[in-house]
Amino acid sequence: MGGMLLGATLLCGIGSTAFARATSAPDAAPRATVRDARQRAVAIVAKMTLDEKMALVHGLFPPLAKGKTPNELIPSAGHIDGIPRLGIPLIRESDASLGVANQIEQRKGDVATALPSSLATAATFDPAIARAGGAMIGAEARAKRFDVLLAGGVNLTRDPWNGRNFEYLGEDPLLSGTMAGAHIAGVQSNRIVSTVKHFALNSQETGRTVVDARIGEAALRMSDLLAFEIAIETGKPGSVMCAYNKVNGDWACENAHLLNDVLKRDWGYRGWVMSDWGAVHSTAKAANAGLDQESGQELDRQIYFADALKADVQAGRVPMARLDDMVTRYLTGLIETGAYDAPAGVAQAIPYAAHAEVAQRAAEAGIVLLKNEGNVLPLARTAKRVVLIGGRADVGVLSGGGSSQVRSVGGAPVEIPLTSGAAMSFARVTWHASSPLLAIRAAMPQAKVTWIDGRDPAAAAAAARAADIAIIFATQWTTEAQDVADLSLPEHQDDLIAAVAAAQPRTVAVMETGGPVLMPWLSAVSAVVQAWYPGQRGGPAIANILTGRVNPSGRLPITFPAATSQAPRSAPVGLDRLSTAEAQAAADPGHASEHQLPSFPADYVEGADVGYRWYEKTRAKPLFPFGHGLSYTGFAYRNPVVTGGATLSISFDVVNTGRIAGADVPQMYVTREGSNAPMRLAGFRRVTLKPGQSTHVTLVAEPRILADYDTKLPGWRVAGGRYRVALARNASDRSIVSTATVRAATMKP
Ligand code: BGC
Fold this sequence. Notes:
Blueprint: H1 34-46, H2 50-55, E1 78-80, E2 91-95, H3 118-123, H4 127-143, E3 148-150, H5 173-188, E4 193-199, E5 211-214, H6 217-221, H7 224-235, E6 239-242, E7 246-247, E8 250-251, H8 256-266, E9 272-275, H9 284-289, H10 307-314, H11 320-337, H12 352-366, E10 368-372, E11 385-389, E12 397-398, E13 415-417, E14 428-432, H13 436-443, E15 448-452, H14 457-465, E16 469-476, H15 493-503, E17 507-513, E18 527-530, H16 538-547, H17 580-587, H18 589-592, E19 600-603, H19 612-617, E20 635-643, E21 649-656, E22 662-664, E23 667-672, E24 680-684, E25 687-689, E26 694-700, H20 703-706, E27 708-710, E28 715-718, E29 721-728, E30 736-742, E31 745-747
Parallel strand pairs: 2-3, 3-4, 4-6, 5-7, 5-19, 6-9, 11-15, 11-16, 16-17, 17-18
Antiparallel strand pairs: 1-2, 7-8, 10-18, 12-14, 13-14, 20-21, 21-26, 22-25, 23-24, 23-29, 27-28, 28-31, 29-30
Helix pairs in contact: 1-11, 4-5, 4-12, 5-7, 12-16, 13-16, 14-15
The protein binds beta-D-glucopyranose.
Residues 1, 77, 95, 150, 197-198, 276-277, 403, 589 line the site of beta-D-glucopyranose.
């Protein structure tokens, strides 16, 4: 969202609204099928005047829209008045990637349940957890009177330093698309709309409103677009949000190829395309290219989809049929999801305690045990003195910044305003009130558990030496609108960890980071626990993992590089081209519209070989591979049988060979023999097993993962022949590989 929030007059919050007791969507007409929805929408549009149509294709940005509507403006991202004459509901929009957002507490005192970062949810490899998170957020949003949620971020992680990696679902199109789809379906189970965003290739925050993402058509279809395609197929989002950046020369929100050709023609998408906030640059071009609605209109240089669009329609520069289609699509998205017939007009009470359990479950399933030498974890019950160091683990856990920021239940025990940078006007460094210290104390009543802040490495080392075990909480804050300049832990934390590890052989590092960081001290510590931003129940989730109440089961949805030089680019593109002021303006739409900033290209040379595929292609050994994650028990894969034919499948038994229950994520990677293409994740399944228990699993390859996109066809082409299939624990594991023959086939785009 634009950076004008801070200076804007914020209207009253929703805290005082009378509550009705219910948390689910009211009963209304049964859900419409897509066809019914479109037909109904067409019939409604047929009754509308030109001005009524115009009113629905641009939305207000509430902080800057005082006096522009007779209706209550809830401080949030968006507002579109309804048309009572036709029964069209008023629609309120909120950010909601990780919970109902309330950036810089624009609605004073309005809290919501904060999930862990999306990357943590991705690390569960469990669509049911993604769906439960979405359902929880949707219920809270409806209870807070929001009808459309700006959620479903599915941009692939191309650069490990992208400031929004924590809001996305990692680097693999199948995993990201599947998890995003499940999340969206969960949100929409409340009969409200979720977007999928940011369409497409908003892969970096540096200069996000001017960067031109450049990539070949086939590579794009096989990577970022495939993630969107899968998310749209499985989640059926009512709306797609187009991105700030350019794609191959055209702004994403006026990119006819992306919007008209790919999304609407090839994928048959029937909902509406809304712009990102401040991402519109034209009227006729954007409308004719497929943009259906201008969001947060006050953030654009001018309001393109009001008077200017009306004039273009009247002059025939935008056909009336196109305007009708824009409105029809908006109504179709609302009708199809149920939001139209059950608008979220009445505030409701929220079962926060039950929702906190959803957040805790996601955090526990998403925390990844990266290293556990000598089984230092789970913490020995005999440990008497445990010292926690740093990370404000006394009071809470870190969260990521930007439009996704949730003011969580329990508040923010630490909140640091920014004094510089592109996110300055709409982000603060915020901790959720969920103390690892208190949770570990409660879980280890036999031990004396203390905390020191870690500012003085010598004092931290002394405290570590005097204890039986030291647990360092390392933090890396990341935010929308800024990329991290390098992958090292900030504020000398590497030195702190090295000093503590030198003093205490049993040192555990708990990482609260947006994404991967470098770990120069890795060999010196016994264990590393990747906790991501663990959400408002992060404290107990971390304590349960450390003490073994919960067996770690997360798997990396993103490669951890051993060195920055392993990534396809060595730094955020454009960082060196923009002055500080320009970088700020280019990332912050509230200011970008006031400047004429030069565009610059980002060439995605890795093409479709994003993340782990790039590492395989360049033969680079990462610090930790995609898919990696340890457990306190062991799993064996037995009797693998690979079958070919129309696609590939692999059947096998997974056995829990250890002494405690746990969850495993067997992964299937495939490539055509002799193709030189890196192996691709084609299937995965999370399974939970008791000690000694086994289960039979069949993974069936998603056909588009076997295929290459053929622009001449156009469509997907599976080359017939022998394929290699790896049943693996991570993207680098080649211990079980077989082959099978797949029939040649083509599929529509
Ligand atoms: C972000 C979107 C967000 C929107 C509304 C933009 O700056 O890129 O993800 O939904 O603001 O807050």
